[in-house]
Amino acid sequence: MVKVTVWNEFLHEKEHEEVRNIYPDGIHNAIAEGIRTSEIEIQTATLEEPEHGLTEEKLNNTDVLIWWGHMGHDRVDDAIVERVHQRVMDGMGLIVLHSGHFSKIFKKLMGTGCDLKWREAGEKERIWTVNPAHPIAAGIPEYVTIDHEEMYGEHFDIPAPDELVFVSWFEGGEVFRSGCTFFRGQGKVFYFRPGHETHPTYYHPHVLQIIRNGVKWAAPSEAGKPVRGNHQPLEPIKGQA
Ligand code: ZN
């Protein structure tokens, strides 16, 4: 059983009717319902809850955190960002979606500006699988088409990903590294691009399958905790008294 927490700032849905019409219960609940299987235990958290819904207890009880944010990045408390960061270092998986590229936690984990090119024209996006052997691409065809999405284009200011799984092409001509993995401490981070709030992207079966695969991939491994600092030799070193 993988314990997943879906975090959404949950502001657009409250403030914009257009978004509320697509996600009446919020993006977090659409994702939670969409990825649910018997092997996943899901809870949600939102910005306006106390501690943004990310208490120590809840995070300690989370194997993989999914993050959707946009207009409220600055409202996320630095202490909570630090808490999430520490959990990632200790092995919690993190899936950052769409406009989460500018979230405090993603920027902190990347160490770069994370800026990109964008356009809201509701154009076609074709997501190409460029690493078909990767577990996050399991069951995903050669390409997935989303009829209407916001465009994100290169250059995407991130460090070179540890693994590149998907690349997007847009009708207007741009391309984008839309499925990237990063290893940070003992934690695994997956950035996945689609999911602009005015399009029903989080009902798309392949988008949901990719997030579900991401959860499975990012779940903590059983590796022992690394030991650091000054270290006594495991066996006698020749030539030393
Ligand atoms: Zn967007």
From TrEMBL:
Residues 3-218 form the ThuA-like domain. Residues 222-241 are annotated as: Disordered. Coiled coil: none annotated. It comes from the Bacteria. InterPro entries: Class_I_gatase-like, ThuA-like, Trehalose_catabolism_ThuA_prok. This is Trehalose utilization protein.
